[in-house]
């Protein structure tokens, strides 16, 4: 019989001191270990994170970046820590409270059913979603469908997902992946290229609990545009393999 999953929760945190306590409390209700990554937070948020780690000393680990590295850099730090601690899988969730932690049990069950797959959140938005962000996401969706030659990834920008750690870290160790807001999309596309199954699960998304967004309009849009260009070139090189997979899957 296969070994049971060991799942840790990784939360990248950058100045979400007003929301992170609620998020951590919601995660801990599922009896999962929580890895907080302080991504160069300002002192007020850093103090909140230290308090949470002290209050839940056996259930919360706190990792600290001296300087901000970006969301992707913080997630990768958390993934490495989880793997070193003996966990087989990591559930990524945002620190601002936009994701519905009540869905964690459902995502873990899906991962148990398909342990080698990525369990990927497919957002169901309420009226709080900014319309501009909602419409802009569709451009990325189209590029992802082009760059995978498939519709397998329904939403690549949702930061609520479960990774199989061994496969994911092999990818991270072997190629450059964007460390800021380009991370979520790029890592999914590259895992798909490596043959990992992407299991899309609907999940409710509310924007956001503390009203703080760290999306840098010009910088992150430039990084995301560059990422799509890199992935497009990578797709062209891999297109025979990707097309063969599609034909074989029919």
Offer a quick outline of the entry.
This protein is α/β, with parallel strands linked by helices and 250 residues long.
Strand order of the largest sheet: 3-2-1-4-6-5-7
Structural shape: globular
Q: What Rg is obtained from the alpha carbons, in whole angstroms?
A: 17 Å
Q: pLDDT below 50 for ≥5 consecutive residues: which ranges?
A: none
Largest sheet: 7 strands, mixed
State the share of residues found in helices, binned by percent: 40-55%
Distance between the termini: 30 Å
Task: Characterise the protein shown here.
The chain is an alpha/beta fold. It is 47% helix and 18% strand. The chain has eight helices and seven strands. The protein has helices at residues 20-28, 43-55, 71-84, 104-113, 131-148, 165-174, 183-193, 217-249, and strands spanning 7-13, 33-39, 60-65, 89-92, 118-125, 161-164, 198-205. The protein has a seven-stranded mixed sheet, with helices on both faces. Strand 1 (7-13), helix 1 and strand 2 (33-39) form a beta-alpha-beta unit. The longest helix has 33 residues, at 217-249. It is globular, with a radius of gyration of 17 Å. The protein starts with 6 loop residues before the first strand and ends with a helix.
């Amino acid at each position: 019989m296969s070994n049971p999953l060991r799942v840790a929760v990784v939360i990248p945190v950058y100045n979400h001191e007003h929301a992170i306590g609620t998020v951590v409390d919601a995660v801990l209700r599922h009896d999962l270990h929580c890895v907080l990554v302080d991504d160069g937070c300002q002192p007020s948020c850093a103090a909140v994170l230290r308090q949470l780690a002290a209050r839940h000393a056996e259930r919360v680990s706190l990792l600290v970046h001296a300087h901000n590295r970006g969301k992707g850099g913080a997630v990768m730090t958390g993934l490495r820590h989880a793997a070193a601690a003996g966990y087989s899988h990591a559930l990524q969730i945002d620190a601002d409270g936009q994701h519905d932690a009540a869905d964690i049990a459902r995502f873990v069950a899906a991962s148990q059913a398909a342990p080698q797959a990525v369990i990927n959140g497919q957002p169901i938005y309420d009226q709080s979603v900014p319309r501009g962000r909602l419409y802009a996401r569709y451009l990325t969706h189209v590029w992802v469908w082009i760059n995978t030659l498939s519709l397998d990834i329904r939403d690549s920008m949702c930061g609520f997902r479960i990774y199989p750690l061994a496969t994911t870290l092999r990818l991270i160790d072997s190629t450059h992946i964007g460390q800021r807001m380009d991370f979520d999309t790029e890592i999914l596309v590259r895992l798909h290229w490596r043959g990992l199954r992407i299991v899309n699960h609907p999940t409710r998304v509310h924007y956001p609990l503390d009203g703080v967004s760290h999306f840098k309009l010009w910088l992150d849009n430039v990084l995301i545009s560059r990422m799509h260009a890199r992935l497009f070139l990578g797709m062209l090189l891999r297109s025979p393999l990707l097309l063969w997979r599609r034909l074989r899957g029919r």
